[in-house]
Amino acid sequence: MIIRNATLEDAPRLVEIYDYYVQKTAITFEYQTPSVIAFQQRMKKAMEMYPYLVIVNNNTIMGYAYAGHLNVREAYDWSCEMTIYLDPSARKKGYGKKLYFALEEACKKMGITNFYACIGYPQKDDGYLTKNSAQFHAHLGYKENGYFHHCGYKFHRWYDMIWMEKIVDVVEHPKPIIPYPNIKETNR
Question: How many domains does the chain have?
Answer without folding.
Answer: 1
